[in-house]
Write a structure and sequence with these properties.
Number of strands: 0
GO molecular function: DNA-binding transcription factor activity; transcription cis-regulatory region binding
Organism: Nitratireductor indicus C115
Number of helices: 9
Number of domains: 2
Largest sheet: none
Protein name: TetR family transcriptional regulator
InterPro entries: Homeodomain-like_sf, HTH-type_TetR-like_transc_reg, HTH_TetR, TetR_C_22
Distance between the termini: 52 Å
Order of helices and strands: HHHHHHHHH
Strand content: under 5%
Pfam family, one: TetR_N
Radius of gyration: 19 Å
Length: 209
């Protein structure tokens, strides 16, 4: 079985396609990989299967992705970029504590729905803590999202220490991802309770309630 070694770093990033045809080929490869992971999980995905379903030779596939770990990393980067865009869009517009509470609650609900609906996201993020390269990518993402949250908190509150806000924001974003991973491993009722409890705890910390 061809599997990703979780104790090894990810290989170098794929070749950056500059021509339209190359970009379309990469998009097709990633779409096929997404379908395979959704159906069978990343551990079952084989490069030969990706090439066959994408309609390209195995040699062409390796020109863009040295192995399947590089494909998984690219998909993780894609999901992280989508998440950061969503968070920035929601939080950059808030100007009152009430707006922040509403925006943050909406983000939590959106992320929880995505975790439940996206098997590929669940597959990738479930292995994040055990994989050094994905863990580093996740930490970078949490830091960026924490900075966005800290900026929003600073705008709508006063008299709070900037470092305290930054630390709290980083912890909230980290614990948010941990909550999602835990929630999807429990039954629906238990998962909902965990998500609701996290939201309440985070709002108290953010707004010093």
């Amino acid at each position: 079985m061809e599997t990703v070694r979780l104790d090894e770093a990810m290989p170098a990033a794929r070749r950056n396609p500059s021509q339209k045809r190359s970009r379309e080929r990469v998009e097709r490869i990633l779409a096929v990989a997404t379908e395979i992971i959704a159906a069978s999980g990343s551990e079952q995905m084989k490069m030969s299967e990706v090439a066959q379903k994408a309609g390209i030779s195995i040699g062409s596939l390796y020109q863009y992705f040295p192995d399947k770990a590089a494909i998984i990393r690219t998909l993780a980067e894609h999901y992280n970029a989508q998440g950061r865009e969503c968070i920035c869009e929601a939080l950059d517009a808030v100007s009152t504590p009430e707006e922040l509470a509403q925006a943050f609650t909406g983000l939590v609900e959106t992320y929880y729905a995505m975790f439940l609906a996206e098997p590929v996201m669940r597959d990738i993020w479930s292995g994040t803590q055990a994989d050094k390269a994905l863990n580093a990518l996740d930490f970078e993402d949490v830091c960026a999202n924490g900075a966005t949250l800290a900026a929003a908190i600073s705008r709508v509150t006063s008299g709070r220490d900037a470092q305290e806000i930054a630390d709290s924001s980083l912890l909230i974003m980290h614990l948010g991802e941990a909550t999602m991973r835990l929630a999807i491993q429990t039954d629906e009722e238990g998962g909902r309770r965990l998500v609701n409890r996290f939201t309440a705890m985070a709002l108290r910390e953010m707004l010093d309630r």
